[in-house]
Each structure stands twice: as structure tokens, then as C-alpha cells.
Amino acid sequence: MKFAMKAGVAAALSAVAVAASAMTPIADEGLSQVSGQDGVSLAASLNVNVGSFQYTNTTESASISFNDIKFTGLIAATIDVINGAHFAEIRKLGTGSPTPVVDGSFFNVASDVVQIAIPDASKVTLPTAALLDMSVAAIKMNGSDASFGKIALTDIDLRGTSVWIWAH
Prior knowledge:
By secondary structure, the protein is of the alpha+beta class. 18% of the residues lie in helices and 39% in strands. Strand 1 (40-57) and strand 2 (62-83) form a beta hairpin.
């Protein structure tokens, strides 16, 4: 008897839970009134290695190689979809005239735009150790094995950068 009562209560609670979580369709008119959080956040810890970059002066038969290039650090970004009219508005120059990207010859304002943005420093606080660094371990000339130096760029801050993607 106790088992039958527990099973009945469990079945009743399950029915209530299923009914409460049922999805109902929303017409386009109703959906246009819905607002909420949109977009996606993305974080990446970079560890990029480039074997070498070589510049050759063909008239002098001289070359210089930058070897063992590394990029390390953290990038945090947001991904949002914005409508074309809003994109065209935010891409106007201070004069009010559109940039070449939105002057009508390259971008259709009827298109939606995917915006990938690295939030500016007022929205994302990162410790200096998390910013991007770039280093070149050795600089060599004309294929020599001897290096005459190295380069390091530290605390490369990309916050405030945006990239836009759209179909055409």
C-alpha cells in the first residue's frame, strides 16, 4: 500500500513538472516583444608558435630571419548579432558620412552582422600577466647560425577591438 501511494505521488508530481515545462509556440508578433540577454562570450588562451619569418632583399641578396616567434596571453570576446541599420549607424565617421564598408557598394543594410568584440578596459579587467605577449627568440642574417638579438613585445592590449562578419 505504501509503495502504491508513493508511486501515485511520484506520478502526479512528474505530470505537474512536465506540464509546467511544456513549450508553447509564440507568434512572430509576440516574439518581437520578447527581450533578454543575447550574444555569446568567448575566451581563448593563446599559445601560437611561428617557426620563422624571413625577409629577403633580392637586389642585395641579403636576408634576415626572425626565428621561434611566440604569441601568448588571454583574449576574451563577445559575439553578438546586430541588424544592418545599426551597424551602418555605428560605422559612420565623425562627419556623419559612412565608411567605405557601409557606403552601399560593399554592405547591404538589410543584412544582419555578426560582431566579435574584445570588450574595452572599462568592461573587462585583466591582470597584466594575462595580456598578449609576442617574442622572437633569435634574429639571424643571411642564413648564419649566430643570432644578433631578439625582440619582445609585452602587454599587447586588444581591448576595444571589434570585428564584423556578414554575408554578401
